[in-house]
Specification:
The chain is an all-alpha fold. α2 crosses α4. The chain has four helices and no strands. It has two domains: 51 residues; 49 residues, no CATH class. The longest helix is centred in the first third of the chain and has 33 residues.
């Protein structure tokens, strides 16, 4: 080992070796963490054109259509903005789109 001389005697004390190994482990983990964050940023910037921009826009559109349908079918504003109104609008929109397809 590096911490021992050729004659087998310890050059570095056990305590110093443990502290050194802990410092090395902490620096190694920190380096992996920072490298992972940088890799994620680089990947996000270089693959922006193939990611789900269209999916986000499409989901927003259908969410708005569901809310419009819920407001159209609900008797009042309070019931249109509830979970019941949302599901009512979702199911009605689903049925309408299914019939039109």
């Amino acid at each position: 080992m590096i911490a021992q001389s050729l004659l087998g005697r310890t050059i570095v004390s056990t305590r110093a070796r443990e502290v050194g190994l802990r410092i090395f482990a902490i620096l190694f983990i920190f380096t992996l963490f920072v490298g992972g964050v940088q890799l994620r940023r680089w990947t996000g910037q270089n693959t922006r054109h193939v990611r789900y921009q269209h999916d986000i826009v499409n989901a927003f559109y259908w969410g708005q259509e569901t809310l419009k349908e819920a407001r159209r079918l609900s008797p009042g504003d309070a019931s249109a903005n509830s979970w019941t109104g949302l599901f009512r609008g979702y199911l009605a929109l689903y049925d309408r789109v299914k019939e039109e397809a």
